[in-house]
Automatic annotation (TrEMBL):
Residues 21-207 form the Glycosyltransferase subfamily 4-like N-terminal domain. InterPro entries: Glyco_trans_4-like_N, Glycosyltransferase_grp1. SUPFAM superfamilies: UDP-Glycosyltransferase/glycogen phosphorylase (SSF53756). It comes from the Bacteria. GO terms for molecular function: glycosyltransferase activity. The chain crosses the membrane at residues 113-134. This is Glycosyltransferase. The keyword Transmembrane helix applies. Pfam families: Glyco_trans_4_4. Keywords: Membrane, Transferase, Transmembrane, Transmembrane helix. The keyword Calcium does not apply. Gene3D superfamilies: Glycogen Phosphorylase B.
Amino acid sequence: MKKKVLIITQNFYPAIGSAGNRMKNIFQLLLKDNIDVEVLTIEPSYPPNKNMYKDRMFWDDEEVNNQEQRITRIPIKNKRFSNELFSRLFFYLEIMYRFTLELWKRRKDNYDYLYVSTPPIFIVLSALIGRRLIHSKLILEVRDLWPDSLTGGVKSFDKKWIINIFQYLEKKMYRTADTIVINSQGFRQHIEKKLKTDKEIIYLPNGPRQYELHANRKNHDEFKVIYAGNLGLAQDIDRLKQVAQDLNNITFILMLLAME
């Protein structure tokens, strides 16, 4: 009998970025392995510009396009407030509410596993509720050590009482999950310290699939490195600058997305 899995994620194809691409690949590989898999996500909005996804150039994977009946995309109003922190909080809370409502509707569905990705933590909270409603096992994928990434650079969150609440919720999600998936071995020790008992932790690194690699490398006298990751408050820009300085005989290129 086929195993049935529901992937719960904020970012999913065609949303650009590592999170959306990773979850798309997991979806495709589970299907390839004869798993009955569905996806619960929001309408593509990352980066925060929904209109760009009206362009069909982003919907370029026919394999996934042909599986749209397996994908539920929840519309999010994403109201704007004068306070950016409040806007972001409202956005996450709305996702949590709408995901929880959708999971309530599916409470009689026989899912074997809920596969949820964090951050953000609010989506995991909806999955914790859904786990009880559906009576399934929970696989928690940790792509970032949250809320530690907030205290590293996002000063708006650097309030002790807020961090204490988030750290409590962090322990709760680690201890409630049946299996934990990490994309960095550096996360293992941090998570194990939060657990009361031994738990299965699986290392599944980020990386391209074979068809995403283009073997057209040419020989050049100049060696170049491209950084194409996030570059915001939560990233350590000073560390990035130090790396660029250490690579003083290498051309260092930043690839950024212009936001309107």
